[in-house]
Amino acid sequence: MYIDNCMRLQVICASLTSMAAEPTADTIAAWTRLMRTQQAMLARVEEALKRAGHPALEWYDVLYELDMAERGWLRQADVNARVLLAQYNLSRLVDRMAREGLLERRQCPVDGRNNVLSITPKGRELRARMWPVYAGAIEAHMGAHLAEGEARSLAELLAKLLAAQRSAPPA
Predict the structure, then answer these.
(1) How far is CA 8 from the centre of its chain?
(2) What is the architecture, at CATH level 2, of domain 39-167?
């Protein structure tokens, strides 16, 4: 019986190991190029914003999410999920942005452990000034190098990967 159970366990382990297939060379190349491209393009966008005298891209991202919020405000945890910053980084950023008068932070009436953030008119104005620089960098470093069909195909491929991640169970 013991040997039988050990053999079953070995078969189960072997099948689990084989389920975790190695990525193909093409998949590895695509992953590497995606990561390198993201880093390079973000660096170019950051450079353009800095040259124009604007704050970092993460400021724009927070202002954008607040400006687009259906109710005109978002819980800080929701902003955090949308902009993909570590919680402590977002907390520091929110502190700086509130001091600059770009957003307002209030205690959430429903969840005392959370803040509610809303964009101010000054925040909307900054976002509006940042957008032409950001849009120009997107066009210069991406749009100018892809045909319309290629941009659409890339967007569709990335949407497919993003949807798979959103539907995957947490690791």
Answers:
(1) 43
(2) Orthogonal Bundle (1.10)
| CA–CA distance, 127 with 18 (Å, rounded to integer) | 50
pLDDT over 90 (residue 113): no
Residue 2 reports pLDDT greater than 50? no
Side-chain half-sphere CA neighbours of 49 within 13 A:
23
Domain limits of the chain?
A: 39-167
Rounded to a whole number, what is the distance in angstroms from the first to the last CA of the chain?
34
User: Residue 54: CB partners within 8 Å, gap ≥ 6?
Assistant: 60, 126, 129, 130, 133
- Output the CA–CA distances (angstroms, integers) from residue 110 to 30, 94, 134, in the order listed: 44, 20, 36
Distance from the Cα of residue 54 to its chain's centroid? 20
Q: Are 71 and 145 in contact (CB under 8 A)?
A: no
Q: What average pLDDT does this structure show over 26-50?
A: 94
pLDDT one-digit tens code per residue, 76-109: 989 998 887 777 789 999 999 999 999 999 987 7
Mean pLDDT of the 127-140 span: 97
